[in-house]
Write a structure and sequence with these properties.
Layout: E1 3-12, E2 15-23, E3 29-33, H1 44-49, E4 55-60, H2 76-89, E5 93-99, H3 101-112, E6 115-121, H4 133-141, H5 145-156, H6 161-169, H7 171-180, H8 184-193, E7 204-212, H9 221-229, E8 236-240, H10 247-250, H11 252-261
GO molecular function, one term: hydrolase activity
Keywords: Hydrolase
Protein name: Alpha/beta hydrolase
Length: 265
């Protein structure tokens, strides 16, 4: 489906989020919550591939163009409250999908309110990436976004130096990652500052957790996935063949089709 509108939603505290709506504006929708170093634009191809819902609403979380600033009071709770405002605005939402940090936000939101279905792709939780916070703090304070991207790939994702240099050689893609790394330190700090509740998605009627085949049982994403899974009382577990954490970029059609196959409507 094609993008229909982009809407600005005030969330209070001097900030706002924008949302991209694909398909029928007032129809039952899948609400998509991107994670760290990602925005609504990078999820466009996934949204276009989804066909099980009449509409897809992609949240452009605060800290990203053209949404508002994080603000000094930013926390993981801020993200949950922002998403609550979006869900109030789009009260026809029938399912909520989050990727990575966005997956945790979606699961926490389903503790606050009834949600028919929550889907999360490799959600992360404390202590994910905590060891990299000191170096990220220095890089963020000096606005060294190139260094931020390097830290994420080397210290958190565990990629080799050769892999990082290959990524850097694609100047356009690297520039996008640098642009999206602005909120990274604050977001990772918020993730590690909050102790997750004993039960996640308490008020969801159905929960589906997705892991990329390449990350099954491996650090860091597979380990965090297993940690989150222990906090979800009842969840279906699904595997996306041949993929890792960045399936929305490397296999958007396949991810969109998997999401459609999980639709409970």
């Amino acid at each position: 489906m094609e993008r229909t509108i982009q809407k600005k939603v005030p969330v209070g505290g001097g900030s706002w989020v924008t949302v991209d709506v694909y398909g029928e504006v007032d129809a039952p929708s899948l609400v998509v919550v991107p994670g760290v170093m990602s925005d609504a634009h990078t999820w466009g191809r996934v949204a276009e591939a989804v066909d099980a819902w009449p509409s897809v609403v992609v949240v452009n979380r605060r800290g990203r163009t053209a949404s508002g600033p994080l603000t000094n009071s930013y926390s993981l709770r801020t993200e949950v409250e922002d998403l609550g405002v979006v869900l109030d605005e789009f009260d026809h939402a029938s399912a909520l999908f989050g990727w990575s940090y966005g997956g945790l936000i979606a699961l926490l939101t389903a503790n606050d309110r009834p949600i028919p279905q929550v889907i999360a792709y490799e959600p992360v939780t404390r202590p994910f990436g905590r060891h990299a916070l000191p170096d990220l703090k220095v890089a963020a304070e000096t606005a060294d976004w190139d260094r931020c991207v390097e830290i994420v790939n080397r210290q958190i994702s565990g990629f080799s130096a050769a892999h990082v240099e290959a990524l850097r050689a694609d100047r356009q893609s690297w520039a996008v990652l640098c642009r999206l790394s602005g909120p990274l330190y604050a977001e990772l700090g918020a993730l590690n500052a909050m102790m997750p509740p004993d039960v996640l998605a308490r008020q969801a009627d159905r929960v589906d957790l997705i892991i990329g085949q390449c990350n099954r049982g491996t650090a860091p994403y597979g380990d965090s996935f297993d940690n989150v899974r222990q906090h979800v009382a009842r969840a279906g577990v699904h595997e996306l063949p041949g993929q890792g954490h960045l399936a929305h970029l490397q296999a958007p059609a396949e991810l969109g089709h998997l999401l459609s196959s999980l639709a409970a409507i």
